[in-house]
Amino acid sequence: MIEMIGGEMPSFTEDRPRAGGALFGYLAGQLPPGADVLVAGPHTDELIDALAERASVTCLVRSEPEAIELDARGLTVLCGTLAKLPVAERYDVVVALDGLDRLCSVEDEQLDWAASLQALKRVLRPGGTLLLAVENELGVHRLVDPSTHTSAQTDSAWRPLGEFDTKPGNPTRLAGKLSAEGLAIDWLGSAWPVPESPTLIATPNALQDGPTDVLAAVAASAVGSAYVEKAVLSDPRRLAAAAVRGGLGPEFAASWLVVAHRAPRPAAALALPPVLAGDDSVVEIAPGPEGTWVRRVLIGDAGVLNGPLPVGRLLEELLLGAALRHDLPLLRRLLTGWAAARPETTADNVVVHHDAFAVLDPSIPPQTDVIRRFAQTLLGGGYAHPWPAATDLATLTSVLHGAAGLPDAVPPVPAEDDIPLPDSRREHEEQLRALRRQIADATSRAQWYERELNKRDKELNKLRKQAAIFSGTVSFRVAKIGYGVARKARNRLRKGLK
User: Which residues form the Methyltransferase type domain (predicted)?
Assistant: First the structure.
């Protein structure tokens, strides 16, 4: 059934990805069964179906074609703008995992973030639960995006991002705004790599008190997977890892996910772990006995992930740091230990604690020639290293093989086996600078050789002129005739002796 509430957009279709994914699906599965749920904004069909299996779902969308599709699937639909949403406390749960930016229509008033939050709160019953995602305008996904957000990039972005808005800029301010609206926070998490489909959600306490180095590695892995071969300003993996290690993970996360309630506190409050990770499978990471952190698979078949979380720094970061410092002893020690302990695991999936090498994600299958893949990371990222003469992949791989104590011979690897990396403009610029330095050096050498050749040509011409002058004198001619006579006499003498 469709109810046109006003402000609907008859010929408009959302042109950005909808909110969904495994982690959002897990959150939907934690809601109390039988509840009246309002799903505000565009969400994936899988997420809506997961909610509809355990609750009575009403969808609020501004696109009329989307409303018709939802109605054809047997869902109750409110089609129109958020400003026209009927004011009635009739929902136990409001799900706005797409945020509040795609709820208003061009056909009516454009509500800002604070006004949109108030509109959703008004339809929430006392004791009701709000699931809200808030995009971070200074998140990693924004900082590496080469496009500007002050101009419209899609049809749905008719209000380009400006500096004047009521959206909170960090988790503390978000908590304050929700509290000012009478909403108490039950759980708050920072999400990576993109707001619409995160694969890692961690609470600020987990990022502060948990295994920082490993969580930084997990964040880098999540971000790297999302930006494979995509154009970015700089490598998002390094930025995400540095933010988490530096204690600024929540401030640079792509979005914040909030579970809040309207007083009084609901009897069936959501109990969520401090860290959720996964794309297909869903894994929780929580404190275990004796100060360790433990992984447990909640959804999926990746049972190999169950158990203690390994501790230590990511091997790839340690190798890159040693390469940048030209620390050859450390590079040899890390490469040798890696080749001996984990020869089939890539450097971005190994953590190092003292001299122990552990696999971060055992569910990833073994890889071929992992040292070659690290060489590709060095060259593709434009990182400085102690072997500047090794400018091609085969040569650098051979050098790294030697440093690791392996045979120098590099087996041929098909091009399709190259490790995919983010297409980073900053790394391209560093590669261009390195090429410019090599070209300048080659030009300088060529100019020196040219000067030397010119100098030798002048000396040779001088000698030729002197030889020509000497060859024209009478004494030279007499000496030349005498030399010829002596040579003939010598030849006859030799024939007579024979």
Answer: 65-131
The H-assigned helical ranges of 168-235 are: 171-180, 204-209, 212-226
Q: Using one digit for the tens of pLDDT, what is the confidence trace for 258-305?
A: 999 998 887 777 889 999 998 888 999 999 888 889 999 998 887 788
Dihedral, CA of residue 278, residue 284, residue 285 and residue 289, to nearest 10: -150
Question: Do residues 316 and 377 touch, judged by C-beta distance below 8 A?
Answer: yes
- Measured CA to CA, the distance from residue 109 to residue 101 in angstroms comes to 13
What is d(CA 426, CA 443) in angstroms, rounded to the nearest whole number?
25
* Averaged pLDDT of the chain: 86
Q: So what CATH class is 2-154+164-308?
A: alpha beta
Report the C-alpha gap between 9 and 80 in whole angstroms.
7
Question: Which amino acid, 22?
Answer: A
The string of DSSP codes covering 446-475 is HHHHHHHHHHHHHHHHHHHHHHHHHHTSHH
> 121-130: per-residue pLDDT in tens?
999 999 999 9
Q: What share of the chain is helix, strand, coil (3-state, %, to 5)?
A: 45, 20, 35
Question: What are the phi and psi torsion angles at 135 (to 5°)?
Answer: -70, 140
Q: Edge-to-edge strands of the sheet including 313-314?
A: 313-314, 350-353, 356-359
Of the candidates 397, 314, 399, the residue with the CA atom closest to the CA atom of residue 350? 314
Q: Give me 58's structure tokens.
A: 């009403």
Alpha-carbon span 23 to 5, nearest angstrom: 31
Tokens at residue 241, please? 């890892």
At 331 the three-state DSSP class reads helix
Specify burial of residue 199 (Cβ count, 10 A radius: 0-12, 13-18, 19+): buried
Give the 3-state secondary structure of residue 56. Answer: strand
Domain ranges of the chain: 2-154+164-308, 313-423, 433-486
Look up the pTM and report it. 0.80
CA distances to 80, 115, 119, 126 from 88, rounded to whole Å, are 16, 16, 10, 11
At 451, the amino acid letter reads R
Q: What DSSP character marks residue 104?
A: -
Q: How far apart are CA 52 and CA 75, in angstroms?
A: 8
Contacts of 329 (CB under 8 A, 6+ apart): none
